[in-house]
């Protein structure tokens, strides 16, 4: 546990994940700052900060998850409110950074949305960003302010070590995740496999083949996020066809939109381990296949080290 002198800095939360904000404050042994967030009948968001933040360091916790645009606008308005209240430094803690999948031009005349969001946060008044498992690491370069990109890997690895011991193979659901899967496999002393996937349209995927040996092994699919679960459920079917004994999955960000929960419950996946960067819906919480690990201690450590000016390097591994 970490103690602090009262009123040295403040932590505030938006509406996207108040449960995580409370866990972080419990770890830091400090109260959550008071803020009133209301919505006019036409959908406009109104922010009112109740605590005096003049000359204080302020940490704003808000994932830009569903509803993405509402949560993003809420965050921008909170940053502006803190700036106009004379906060000395505004650190934006974004456990899940929305729009991160739109980090490059994949077709003519399309925006680079992740860059635009970075510009909006910076122009609104953010002094520093703390986030977890960016979909693309190069997004850090979209900012002209410091960015600490934390990793949920230690939390997921500890779970894997305690629940899976023999004949494990870590599976990357696509070519883009191979580096991540290889790092996990090395730390676990496990094998590595790759799903050869062909994507026909956004949120639609078709798994074609498995590269690597999964026969009679416990397969653990590893990804940074699970959105509609199409990729994952396709991979589960192919892995079992290739002789995998059982299939589990791990990810940092449980986006779980659209038919995701239904697909997870219906497929032969044994378990899906996620973190609380995104607050699960009641339907997701009710699924007996989904287990949630908390990143509160990880983010809490990043906050206190950032405030004190200590190194956060050890949190990146």
Task: Please explain how this structure is put together.
This protein is 31% helix and 27% strand. It has 317 residues and is an alpha/beta fold. The strands form three sheets. The protein has a seven-stranded mixed sheet with strand order 10-9-8-11-12-13-14, with helices on both faces. It has a five-stranded parallel sheet with strand order 1-4-5-6-7, with helices on both faces. Helix 1 crosses helix 9. It is globular, with a radius of gyration of 20 Å. The relative contact order is 0.13.
Briefly, what is this?
The chain has 317 residues and is α/β, with parallel strands linked by helices. It has nine helices and 14 strands.
């Amino acid at each position: 546990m970490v103690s602090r002198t009262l009123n040295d800095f403040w932590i505030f939360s938006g509406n996207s994940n108040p449960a995580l904000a409370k866990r972080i404050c419990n770890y830091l042994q400090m109260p959550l700052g008071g803020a009133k967030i209301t919505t006019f009948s036409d959908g406009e968001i109104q922010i009112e900060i109740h605590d005096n933040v003049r000359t204080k360091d302020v940490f704003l916790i808000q994932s830009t998850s569903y509803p993405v645009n509402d949560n993003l606008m809420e965050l921008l308005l909170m940053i502006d409110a803190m700036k106009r209240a004379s906060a000395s430094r505004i650190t934006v803690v974004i456990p899940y950074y929305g729009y991160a999948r739109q980090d490059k031009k994949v077709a003519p005349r399309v925006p680079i949305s992740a860059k635009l969001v970075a510009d909006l946060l910076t122009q609104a008044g953010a002094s520093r960003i703390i986030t977890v498992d960016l979909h693309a690491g190069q997004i850090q370069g979209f900012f002209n302010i410091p960015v600490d990109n934390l990793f949920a890997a230690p939390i997921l690895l500890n779970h894997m070590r305690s629940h899976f011991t023999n004949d494990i193979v870590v599976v990357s659901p696509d070519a883009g995740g191979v580096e991540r899967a290889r790092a996990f496999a090395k730390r676990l002393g496990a094998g590595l496999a790759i799903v050869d996937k062909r994507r026909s349209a956004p949120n639609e995927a078709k798994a074609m083949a498995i590269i690597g040996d999964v026969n009679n092994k416990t397969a653990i699919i590893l990804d940074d996020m699970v959105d509609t679960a199409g990729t994952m459920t396709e991979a589960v079917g192919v892995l079992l066809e290739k002789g995998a004994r059982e299939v589990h999955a791990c990810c940092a960000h449980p986006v779980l939109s659209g038919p995701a929960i239904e697909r997870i419950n219906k497929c032969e996946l044994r378990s899906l381990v996620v973190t609380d960067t995104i607050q699960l819906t009641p339907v997701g919480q009710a699924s007996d296949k989904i287990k949630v690990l908390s990143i509160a201690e990880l983010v809490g450590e990043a906050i206190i080290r950032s405030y004190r000016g200590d190194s956060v390097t050890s949190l990146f591994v």
